[in-house]
Amino acid sequence: MRIVVTKGAGEGSTRKSAFDSALRDAGIDGYNLLELSSVLPPGCEIAEEKFAMDPAEHGHRLYVVLACSFQESAGKKAVAGIGWIRQHDPDGPGVFVEHAGDTPSGVAGDIATSLREMASRRKWDFESHGSSTSEAVCSGKVACAVVAAVYMSEGWG
Asked: Which residues neighbour 121 within 8 Å (Cβ) at sequence distance 6 or greater?
């Protein structure tokens, strides 16, 4: 299984419009998103890249772990991030964690703290971890930053 970690940033006059803009930037605006609880199956590959939607999948379900942040104060940032950790090796089982905030260092710190505690609870090696963040600066409209770990799409039929 291949999980794509994609990210985007956008703005709009409303939170919904800003969210749509950020999803479009991440390449996942044509799907119905179904959020997952963050468990990584063993043997999966994680690729950090822009998601490329297949136009034939418009309207399909897309299973994701999603981090999302909004900012409505001009000059301030919306920051979203996802981190992951695996049991003892790069192909082992693992977990994702998602955080949002208004500073890159704050989100990175929250991700690192959560992963460290989760690894300790599971007795996993903290060295097998990674993360991805997105930032959007508010220019007077609503800003939105998203990071999504995309598991798979599924049609309705």
From this structure: none
